[in-house]
């Protein structure tokens, strides 16, 4: 049983949910997928178990992802999913409701903010706070956001990419793009269908991206190949296909260029003093999407700045949300999250 004042940080991601418990670290990392029985409305599975059902369920069971582009697409299912993860993280016998910090993309609307906060409260939080993803990512990556010096963070998540320049505990300029790992997967599905007349699922596309995906075709992956299976759209029969790393780049090129353009746009709006700080420190990349081979090299080449991938890129945002609860007074004093929190 937890004592009074348990603090939980939640990275409410489009692709996966990570839960950070103070004193324990990351206790959960599961896909944000829920399997529901359409007839009764009851939840059959949540997380990894539900993800295995994607594209493989009978008619009366539907596996859905209640978050799209970093925001809530299905409020009721998100609330039930959050309740499940909070209970799982705390154990069923927690006496006091936890304080919860949830991260949100930097470009969300007031309505989307309220939906996230309300979902967390309905799911069993005593107090629900919100923090913008770039701030949480910077905290989780170990950056000193309080100093009067510019730091640049590029957080490539499943649904969104957040680019921000931080100084004195706040966001100086930022851009939130509705481009992320999911869009990379969708682009691969479209490319394979168009170029090879083969229908594959998003899970297969994701596996292909992880295995041989590249954002910089002349980089380390070169001309690696991978075998995939799908349904031939001409014959309607299952078929094997050999795909090259170069093809994954061509499939994702438009989305990759959108990320690079977003980084350039934020740099163009950065005050000159902070820009010189970033030249010295470089750009820090976080999020699962930052692990796409060659993306750091490409951004470095296009901007002329050093680019570093954070040590635990996938968990940075979740760790940062947990740490933010410990420095709540400082963040509120600096008006970084006060309106969002109260």
Oligomer: single chain
Label the structural class: alpha+beta
CATH class of the largest domain: Alpha Beta
Low-pLDDT residue spans:
338-342
**What's the helix count?**
12
Would you tell me which CATH topology of the largest domain applies?
Nucleotidyltransferase, domain 5
Number of domains: 3
Distance between the termini: 28 Å
Could you spell the SSE succession in H and E letters? Answer: EEEEEHEEEHEHEHEEEHEHEEHHEHEHHH
**CATH homolog superfamily of the largest domain:** ATPase, nucleotide binding domain
DSSP strand content? 25-35%
Strand order of the largest sheet: 3-2-1-9-10
The backbone outline, from C-alpha atoms, is flat
What portion of residues is helical?
25-40%
Look at the structure and give the mean pLDDT: 88
Rg estimate, integer Å: 20 Å
Sheet bearing the most strands, described?
5 strands, mixed
Find the count of extended strands (DSSP E, 2+ residues).
Answer: 18
- What is the name of the CATH architecture of the largest domain? 2-Layer Sandwich
List the helices and strands and how they pair.
Elements: E1 7-12, E2 16-21, E3 25-31, E4 34-37, E5 43-46, H1 48-51, E6 61-64, E7 67-68, E8 71-72, H2 75-90, E9 99-104, H3 110-122, E10 127-132, H4 133-140, E11 151-156, E12 161-167, E13 170-177, H5 181-196, E14 198-199, H6 202-212, E15 225-232, E16 238-244, H7 245-269, H8 272-281, E17 283-286, H9 295-303, E18 307-309, H10 316-326, H11 328-333, H12 338-341
Helix pairs in contact: 2-3, 4-10, 5-6, 5-7, 7-9
């Amino acid at each position: 049983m937890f004592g009074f004042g348990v603090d939980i940080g939640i990275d409410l991601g489009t692709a996966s949910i990570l839960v950070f418990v103070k004193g324990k670290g990351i206790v959960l990392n599961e896909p944000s997928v829920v399997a529901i029985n359409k007839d009764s409305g009851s939840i059959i599975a949540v997380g990894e178990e539900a993800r295995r059902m994607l594209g493989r369920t009978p008619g009366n069971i539907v596996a859905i992802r209640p978050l799209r582009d970093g925001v809530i697409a299905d409020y009721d299912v998100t609330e039930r999913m959050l309740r499940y993860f909070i209970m799982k993280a705390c154990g069923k016998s927690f006496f006091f409701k936890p304080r919860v910090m949830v991260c949100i993309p930097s470009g969300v609307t007031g309505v989307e903010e309220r939906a996230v906060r309300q979902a967390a409260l309905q799911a069993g939080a005593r107090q629900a706070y919100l923090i913008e993803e770039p701030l949480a990512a910077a905290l989780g990556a170990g950056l000193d956001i309080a100093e009067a010096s510019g730091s640049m963070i590029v957080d490539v998540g499943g649904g969104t990419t957040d680019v921000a320049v931080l100084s004195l505990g706040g966001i100086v300029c930022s851009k939130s793009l509705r481009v992320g790992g999911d869009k990379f997967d969708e682009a691969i599905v479209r490319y394979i269908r168009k170029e090879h007349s083969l229908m594959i699922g998003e899970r297969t596309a994701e596996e292909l991206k992880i295995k041989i995906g590249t954002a910089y075709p002349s980089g380390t992956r070169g001309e690696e190949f991978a075998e995939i299976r799908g349904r031939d759209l001409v014959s309607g029969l299952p078929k094997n296909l050999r795909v090259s790393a170069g093809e994954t780049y061509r499939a994702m090129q438009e989305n990759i260029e959108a990320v690079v353009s977003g980084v350039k746009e934020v740099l163009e709006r950065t005050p000159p003093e902070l820009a010189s700080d970033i030249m010295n420190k470089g750009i820090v990349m976080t999020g699962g999407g930052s692990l796409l081979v060659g993306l750091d090299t490409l951004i470095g080449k296009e901007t002329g700045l050093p680019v570093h991938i954070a040590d635990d890129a996938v968990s940075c945002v979740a760790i940062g949300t947990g740490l933010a609860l410990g420095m709540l007074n400082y963040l509120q004093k600096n008006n970084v999250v006060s309106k969002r929190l109260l």
